[in-house]
Amino acid sequence: MNDPSLYTAVRPAVSSPAGWRRRAAEEADASRLWTGMDGGILSGRELADLLAGAREHLVRVGWEPVPFEGIVGALMDVSSGDLALWSAAERLLEIVLAARSTVATWGVDLDAWERRTGRTWAEVSELLTTAAQFAREHGPQGGAR
Fold first, then answer.
1. What is the mean pLDDT of residues 90-106?
2. If you ran DSSP here, which 8-state letter would residue 34 be given?
3. Whether the predicted pLDDT of 1 surpasses 90
């Protein structure tokens, strides 16, 4: 059946790097990503350092697509459980995934993406690296935490 609501949830694919970066920047700002759950401002560098640290952590311990032992587990470990920080990093990863795909932002779940059959370490590593670079380039310079 042709459900009209399905057409409103799907956005056209953004193929150029500038296109997905623009879209990700708009969504990050609109969703107030840079304001942590604790009300403090998260700098782009804080998120970038966490994402890079999570990647390095997964290099050391090995990546397994298991809930709370994969990407999210690494974010939690590296942030020492700082909920405001690791949850913002998780959200940024979902924003990047959505901006590079054809789905609306609310339609991307990091856990589902990570656990998809056939997902590779190369894809996970590239996502963490790309999101860290995006955070450095687009996130706030300071931080009032």
1. 84
2. T
3. no
**How many Å separate Cα 137 from the centre of its chain?**
14
Q: How far is CA 111 from CA 23, 31, 64, 74, 117, in A?
A: 22, 20, 12, 13, 12
Q: Give the pLDDT confidence of 11-26 residue by residue, as tens digits.
A: 444 456 678 889 898 8
> Rounded to whole angstroms, how far apart are CA atoms 105 and 57?
27
Reference 135, options 77, 95, 80; nearest CA is 95
pLDDT score of 142:
52
Per-residue pLDDT tens for 113-132? 999 999 999 999 999 999 99
Quick one: which H or E segment has residue 95? helix 83-99
CA–CA separation, 131 vs 94, rounded Å? 9
101 burial (CB, 10 Å; 0-12 / 13-18 / 19+) is: middle
Q: Which two tokens mark 23? A: 């879209």
Which residues are CB-contacts of 3 (< 8 A; sequence separation ≥ 6)?
Answer: none
